[in-house]
Amino acid sequence: MADSTGFLKYDRALPPRRPVDIRLLDWKDVYLTRETGEDAVFPVTAIRQQAARCMDCGIPFCHHGCPLGNLIPEWNDLARRDDWTEAVERLHATNNFPEFTGKLCPAPCEGSCVLNLQESPVTIKQIEWEIIDQAFQRDLVTPVPPQEHTGKKVAVVGSGPAGLAAAQQLTRAGHDVTVYERADRVGGLLRYGIPEFKMEKAVLDRRLDQMRAEGTRFVTGVEVGGGAEGDLSVEQLRADNDAVVLSGGATVGRDLPAPGRELAGIHLAMEYLPFGNRQALGELDDPPINARGKHVVIIGGGDTGADCLGTAHRQGAASVTQLEIMPAPPDQRDPLSNPWPTYPMIMRVSSAHEEGGERLYSVNTERFIDDGNGTVRALLLHEVERVDGRFQKIEGSERELPADLVFLAMGFTGAQREGLLEGLGVEIDGRGNVARDGEFMSTVPGVFVAGDMGRGQSLIVWAIAEGRAAAGAVDTWLTGASLLPRPVTPTAVALR
Ligand SMILES: Cc1cc2nc3c(=O)[nH]c(=O)nc-3n(C[C@H](O)[C@H](O)[C@H](O)COP(=O)(O)OP(=O)(O)OC[C@H]3O[C@@H](n4cnc5c(N)ncnc54)[C@H](O)[C@@H]3O)c2cc1C
Ligand code: SF4
């Protein structure tokens, strides 16, 4: 039973971020953690008050916002009552990795929360983080090894959140699971895309320890279908395994074919961010792409762009400007086109935006300008307006924007075809993703697809949901029946 007056007694409140001038000196989490003083500033009693704001709604709309079907009112009430053992059990019932979503999810559940009708939703994401962090602190997260082994072998290709979720579910169901990752470490975008200041890698590593103890095997530095020595051929992959899960992500970055694109100093975001992550971990002092002292321009106004922004500021950029072709979103949702309980499309200030830089909206890059030595010196921009749904240049609005370094953060066009996918001969759909049926199976029998590789560029919460659902389909295919949950179908979409 919820506290029936909690939402009247307590206002929505979140833990503070560390002061900007302090956090820019390091790469640590922008929020206070237990090590940096969270307990003193936002004690667990404050989180329990936030949990008490949940009304345990008759129709909990928060459920509809979350593809995992998280049991939000149940664990809100358990957190309120200080029962972390039961709370984490309920949390894990629907989500293998609540610490990833508790740190990184844009929280569509909060957009759908009934209290968001008054723009003060329950702080669901923060409560989720608190439950799982309390559980790790109290040694409540222990390995859950399988009780029986099926003798079936499954390969998971790609170790992002989709692959990890599929692997954990299938290992626990008793299959012999090996995860192949071409990078030198496990984690996909959680490892080398998302910066340390958004989620410290230690958070990922403690979960991987649990997975290893349960029996999941990880093989890193091996590209399946790659041509380098030590890589694994697709023929060997098929021969060695009874089923395969493809979870290689949507790794092909969208490029900008504007004149001057070939100049030095212009990079895709994912050419830059992995170096920043290695610098954050002390593995590189002077990364090959370094914003120190430079005028940086980021093309693309989304989260990937914000990650470039925060990384460039920590490297000591002279200035950072983020460009977006769309107009600035409104401060409040439009009740007609974007009503509750859909996700509010409003202006957001991420931690990186709080740290500085300028955001320009309704602008387009006409060309990149050479410094005379083959390196970018500036961008030629113009303003745009929308006419009949198409962007049109506003004549006379051209101007130069100085740029020593440009990052293209305009999204991803789909999965890499060469190597793995061409070798397997799977069909690609019209959107550049691996085609699959209602059971997450590609056009090649026994080869399943989960996460961004099948859905296209999406979110961690969707990757975990797809990994869980695909595991249920694989288990059924291998054994004829499965008790594993399937929270989403391949064609499920966010609440619209
Ligand atoms: C910079 C950035 C920041 C983001 N921030 C957020 C955020 O804050 N919140 C959020 O919800 N979402 C965020 N996203 C989106 C989110 O990270 C992705 O939707 C999610 O990681 C997709 O998971 P996945 O498992 O499908 O693939 P990925 O995480 O992309 O993992 C795929 C892995 O497969 C490996 N691989 C590919 N091919 C092969 C092969 N042939 N052999 C071996 N390994 C292979 C790749 O090396 C990679 O490690 C962000 C995305 C980016 C790019
Ligand atoms: S919609 Fe909000 S208030 Fe209602 S049950 Fe969900 S979290 Fe609680």
UniProtKB/TrEMBL annotation:
All residue ranges annotated as the FAD/NAD(P)-binding domain in the record: 152-467
Domain Dihydroprymidine dehydrogenase: 46-138
Membrane spanning residue stretches: none
GO biological process: glutamate biosynthetic process
Alphabetically ordered keywords of this record: Amino-acid biosynthesis, Glutamate biosynthesis, Oxidoreductase
Pathway given in the UniProt record: Amino-acid biosynthesis
Coiled-coil region(s): none
GO molecular function terms attached to this record: iron-sulfur cluster binding; oxidoreductase activity, acting on the CH-NH2 group of donors, NAD or NADP as acceptor
Superkingdom assignment: Bacteria
Cross-referenced SUPFAM superfamilies: alpha-helical ferredoxin (SSF46548), Nucleotide-binding domain (SSF51971)
PANTHER family: GLUTAMATE SYNTHASE [NADPH] SMALL CHAIN
Entry protein name: Glutamate synthase subunit beta
